[in-house]
Write a structure and sequence with these properties.
The protein has 9 helices and no strands. 74% of the residues lie in helices and 0% in strands. The protein has one domain (2-234). Pfam families: HEPN_Cthe2314.
Length: 239
């Protein structure tokens, strides 16, 4: 959608993103086939289908936010806030909007995945923590020793991206609980010298961090739904 609004060609779903989306659609097909066979009187399969479709949409929105932030970043040439032209200020504001939308969505998608995994594998994480996150669900897998193959794979992914996820989490927390994330850098610079010009944060580094967060989400979704599809196939669920 955003690519069309920006005058760009539609996205081709390939790479990690494409694999994750394709695997989730395979899950949806398995669920639909099972509902046709057994009518799904408890609506458990229907609920999982809706949640999985929601994850596909959420992943799409996260990728679009990253792409739009990259698009508007290209128009920002000045190195200092005070040196921006009015046009650059507008483009920078658009970059900030989509960048912030992106890093907030990284954790939103993961927490939605946590909800699906908690329900799918009967982890009862809410008994441990009423308002739990994806990372709480992951700890619950290990605590209960449920599905260790999946738990270990997800933990490897989490550890691979631990550093960048900590960076994104701090910015997310600042944005939600304290102040606009991009203004933290401005405030720190003002403390260094009230008369100094405010240098822009490293936009390219921030976008690289966001892309790595997107990759982490894709890998986590891919591992979770690939494992689920394989498990169901062994139990006789086929499209």
């Amino acid at each position: 959608m955003l690519r069309t609004l920006l005058g760009e060609m539609p996205r081709q779903n390939n790479g990690l993103l494409g694999e994750a989306i394709q695997t989730m659609y395979q899950t949806i097909q398995l669920l639909q086939t099972e509902m046709k066979k057994n009518a799904d009187p408890s609506h458990d399969f229907r609920r999982l289908e809706i949640w999985t479709r929601g994850l596909v949409s959420s992943l799409d929105e996260l990728e679009q936010s990253w792409y739009a932030a990259c698009f508007f970043r290209k128009s920002v040439k000045a190195g200092y806030v005070d040196d921006m032209t009015p046009r650059e200020q507008e483009e920078y504001a658009r970059y900030v909007y989509f960048y912030k939308n992106g890093f907030i969505r990284v954790f939103s998608v993961l927490d939605k995945l946590g909800t699906v995994l908690n329900d799918l594998y009967d982890l009862n994480t809410s008994k441990v923590k009423a308002h739990y996150s994806y990372f709480t669900v992951l700890r619950q897998f290990h605590y209960l020793k449920h599905h260790p193959k999946l738990a270990d794979e997800l933990s490897v992914i989490k550890n691979e991206y631990r550093g960048v996820m900590n960076v994104l989490r701090k910015r997310r927390n600042a944005e939600i609980h304290y102040m606009n994330a991009e203004m933290q850098d401005d405030l720190w610079q003002r403390h260094q010298g009230l008369n100094n010009k405010v240098e822009l944060e490293d936009l390219d580094q921030h976008l690289d961090d966001l892309k790595r967060g997107l990759d982490m989400v894709c890998k986590s979704l891919l591992a979770s739904f690939r494992y689920t599809n394989e498990l169901w196939s062994r139990k006789g669920m086929k499209t």
